[in-house]
C-alpha cells in the first residue's frame, strides 16, 4: 500500500488477493463501482446511529450538534459501495435511507 501518499485509492488500485490491514477503509475510494446508492433523508432521520454502526465502510457521516450529541450528517459516496445495509438496518417505519439506482 501507499501509506506515504495522501491519495485515495480507487477500486482498481486495491490490493488483489491479499488481506488488507484492519482500519484502512478511510484510505480507499471504492464508491466508483457502486450500482446502487443510499439516499439519506434528514427529515426522517432520528439519528439513532444504527446505520453508522452497521456500515462496513464507514460511509455514514456524523457530526456533533449544538448539544454535543453525535448526529447523522449524510453519506460519503467516495467510500460507499451501495450494499444497502444502512437502509435495511434503519429502524424508522419509513426508512430514513432509501436505495436508488446509481446515477453515472
Task: Describe the structure concisely for a colleague.
With 104 residues, the protein is mostly beta strands.
Could you give the topology of this structure?
Elements: E1 36-40, H1 50-54, E2 60-64, E3 70-75, H2 85-89, E4 97-101
Antiparallel strand pairs: 1-4, 2-3
Describe the structure.
The chain has helices at 50-54, 85-89; strands at residues 36-40, 60-64, 70-75, 97-101. With 104 residues, it is mainly β. It has a domain at 33-101: Alpha-Beta Plaits (2-Layer Sandwich). 17% of the residues are buried. The model has no long low-confidence stretch (mean pLDDT 83).
Q: Can you identify the CATH class of the domain at 33-101? A: Alpha Beta
CATH topology (fold) name of the domain at 33-101: Alpha-Beta Plaits
How many angstroms does the end-to-end distance come to? 28 Å
What level of helicity do the residues show?
A: under 10%
Largest sheet: 2 strands, antiparallel
- Residues in β-strands, percent: 15-25%
Instruction: Kindly state the number of beta strands.
Output: 4
Averaging pLDDT over every residue, what do you get? Answer: 83
